[in-house]
């Protein structure tokens, strides 16, 4: 037990003396393989917050990545959403993607003005669709809800370049290219939900869903910035 406590003490002191890296990235996902075959040329803009910790004395970083993106949005202006109410209403539907993953980075011992690295991620992705009905773009929603939401495991593999800003700024420009693979899940894309009014005009209409099912395979080029925190 004494040796274990000494080991924990040394690791803790080493951790406090090391640098943590905090960053923000913009990724642009391009559908490939199953995702493209099922849903076409889907584009997924995504913003990612991440933080890594450099393990002492070895060129390895571990961390956490959290991302949010929208892979489709649609606006309909309709007068038939509610029985007895004929004013024009705005029906906005967004298809969203949330991801959370552990990160692993390895830096080969290559020295110069830029530092290459290999990166792997393992985590989960949540694809969900939401709608809001408003009178105008700025008014409170009359109705809102979630059409669909599903989780799947996710893994990413790739690499990039870390380019230091210089001595005056303790940070970096990061350029990456990653490949994403996920488990199969059901989701909706733009145009996959249709509103069916009641033909007799007696009750409110219903949404009709045309779901898709595939892996969310993507190639993801990205650019971002990161800063060290002592």
Give an overview of the whole structure.
The chain is mainly β and 230 residues long. The chain has one domain (2-229): Porin (Beta Barrel). Helices cover 10% and strands 63% of the residues. It is built from two helices and twelve strands. It has helices at residues 2-17, 33-39; strands spanning 20-31, 43-54, 60-78, 89-106, 115-134, 143-166, 169-182, 185-187, 193-196, 206-209, 212-214, 218-229. The strands form three sheets. An eight-stranded antiparallel barrel has the order 1-2-3-4-5-6-7-12. Strand 5 and strand 6 form a beta hairpin. The longest helix is centred in the first third of the chain and has 16 residues, at 2-17. The two termini are 31 Å apart. The relative contact order is 0.21.
Query: Order of strands across the widest beta sheet?
Result: 1-2-3-4-5-6-7-12
CATH architecture: Beta Barrel
| Average of pLDDT | 90
Helix/strand/pairing category: mainly beta
Rg result:
23 Å
- Briefly note the CATH topology name: Porin
Return the CATH class. Answer: Mainly Beta
Organism: Belliella buryatensis
Keywords: Signal
Protein name: Outer membrane protein beta-barrel domain-containing protein
Signal peptide: 1-17
């Amino acid at each position: 037990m004494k040796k274990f406590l000494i080991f924990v003490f040394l690791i803790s002191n080493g951790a406090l003396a090391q640098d943590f890296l905090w960053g923000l990235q913009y990724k642009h996902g391009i559908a490939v393989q199953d995702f493209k075959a099922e849903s076409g040329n889907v584009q997924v803009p995504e913003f990612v917050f991440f933080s890594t910790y450099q393990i002492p004395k070895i060129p390895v970083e571990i961390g956490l990545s959290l991302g949010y993106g929208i892979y489709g949005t649609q606006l309909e202006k309709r007068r038939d959403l509610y029985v007895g109410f004929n004013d024009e209403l705005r029906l906005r539907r967004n298809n969203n993607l949330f991801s959370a993953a552990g990160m692993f980075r390895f830096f080969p011992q290559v020295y110069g003005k830029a530092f290459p690295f290999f990166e792997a991620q393992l985590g989960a992705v949540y694809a969900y669709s939401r709608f809001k009905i408003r009178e105008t773009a700025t008014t409170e929603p009359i109705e809102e809800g979630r059409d669909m939401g599903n989780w799947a495991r996710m893994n990413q593999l790739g690499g990039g370049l870390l380019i230091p800003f210089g001595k005056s700024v303790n940070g970096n420009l990061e350029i990456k290219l990653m490949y994403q693979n996920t488990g199969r899940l059901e989701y909706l894309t733009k145009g996959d939900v249709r509103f069916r009014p009641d033909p007799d005009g007696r009750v409110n209409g219903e949404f009709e869903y045309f779901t898709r099912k595939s892996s969310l395979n993507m190639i993801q080029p990205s650019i971002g910035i990161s800063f060290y925190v002592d």
